[in-house]
Each structure stands twice: as structure tokens, then as C-alpha cells.
Amino acid sequence: MGSFNRFMASFGEIAILGARTFRETLRPPFEWRLTLAQLELGGVDSWSITMLTAVFTGMVMATQFAVGLEPFGASIYTGKLVALGIVRELGPVLTSLLVGGRVGAGFTAEIGSMAVTEQIDAIRAMGADPVRKLVVPRVLAMTIAIPLLTVMADVIGCAGGVVITVAEVGVTWTFALEQMLETITVGDFMHGIIKSLFFGSIISLVASWRGMTTTGGTEGVGRATTETVVYTSVSILFADFILTRLLTAVYA
Asked: Any idea where the domains of the chain sit in the sequence?
């Protein structure tokens, strides 16, 4: 019962932080300089891990489908399955999990260090809002960065799938590309992009919340950083299930 109460209290704190962040996001003046700085740290610096994850995911999926469908004489449809799997599910989810772990931990460590050294209290003492200065730029940055990284992951992942499809199944490059392009619809693409928008917000909100509630000095910062990776991963997977149910009904 105690764990459930702690969970509900944490969920309520994150929800309140999300509401405050949304309110501050709409109030000028906008913190464009801080947002761009976080966008560079969270988005631009994450392109390499996104690219590597996507290309190998596409290649592994294509290999598995090519081998698994061969006894049924359906290996020719490998490209279709790879494209749908990456665009609708694996592109946004794997990108968010990996980037979220990397960036979320960084957000928590930075804000947590400010919390234990009373820098957040100093911001309040100067009449500024810590949510506006610390949380809003990170939420905006990740809400922009994750969808862009997801698009890159979709393209790179499908390209890796094409390479293996041509090599394993024996189809031509043109056939494999046309097959993927004919399979993916606007609904499939939006399915993944909408998910990534929510995932980006979840990553930044959870990481910022855990950073602002950090206590216990440097040891507490390390503990909060570790917990952030777990919290963001579980939150993304849970949100993925809910969003999949909703979006499947919309784009069915």
C-alpha cells in the first residue's frame, strides 16, 4: 500500500509539473536561447546513437523475417513487415528509450546538482520561476528532438532493412524500395510521430521532476540519475501501449 501511495503521489507531482510547464510555455517572453541549447544537447548530439540503433534494428528485423517466412513462401513480403514495424513501433520506441536514457539522466544530474546545492532556491529568491528557466526549455527541446530523430530512425532503419532484404530474399533494390513505399501510409507515419511527441514530453518531464526532487547530496544525485533511466523507460513503454490502442482505433 505504501508503494502505491508513493506512486500516486509521484504521478500527481509530475502531472502538476506538466500543467505548470504547459502554462509557462504559452507565456511570453520565450526562452529561445535556452531551448536551442537543450535542443543541441538532447537532439543534435544524439544522432549517432539513433542512427546505429536504427540501422541494426532494420537489418535484424529483415534477417528474422526473411528466415522465418521462407518456409511459408512469404519471404518476399519481408520489406513490408520491416517498414511497418519500424515506422509504427520500433522507430519511435527504441529512439525514445535510448535517447531518453542518455538525455534524461543528464537532465536529472544537472537539475539535481542544482537542487542539492540550493541553486534552485536561489532562482526562486531572485524572483524567477525554476519551471520556466529549467523545465520549459528541456520539454520544448525534447518534444522537437524526438520526432526529428524518429524520422531519421525510420529512414535509416528501412534502408538497413532494404540491404538485408535484397541480400537474403534475392529481390531487386527497386522492388524492395517500392514495396516499402507502397506499404507505408500517412497514417502509419503519423502513428509513430504522434507517439514520439508524447515520448519526448515524458522524458523531459520525468527527468526534470526527479532532478528537482533530489535530496541527499552527491549520493542522492547519483541515485536520482539511476532512477530516472528506469522511470522514463517504464513510462515510455506504458505510454506506448496506451497510445497504440488509441492510434490504432483512429488510423485503423
From this structure: 2-25+32-250
Check residue 251 and give its pLDDT.
Answer: 65
Query: Please, is 182 exposed, middle or buried when counting C-beta atoms within 10 Å of its C-beta (0-12, 13-18, 19+)?
Result: exposed
CA separation for the pair 205, 149 (Å, rounded): 19
Residues 128-148: tens digit of each pLDDT:
888 998 999 999 999 999 999
Q: Is residue 99 a contact partner of residue 49, using CB atoms and an 8 Å limit?
A: yes
Query: Which residues are CB-contacts of 2 (< 8 A; sequence separation ≥ 6)?
Result: none
The alpha carbon dihedral of 27, 38, 51, 241 has a sign of negative
CB 195 within 8 A of CB 94: no
C-alpha cell at 212: 528537482
Structure-block grid coordinates of residue 230: 528506469
What's the rounded mean pLDDT across residues 122-133? 87
- Separation CA 204–CA 223 (nearest Å): 18
Alpha helices in the chain (DSSP H): 2-25, 32-42, 47-69, 78-85, 91-116, 119-125, 130, 136-169, 173-183, 186-212, 217-250
Q: How confident is the model at residue 2 (pLDDT cuts 50, 70, 90)?
A: low
User: In 3D, which of 86, 74, 84 has the Cα closest to residue 169?
Assistant: 74
C-alpha to C-alpha distance for 139 and 208, rounded to whole angstroms: 9
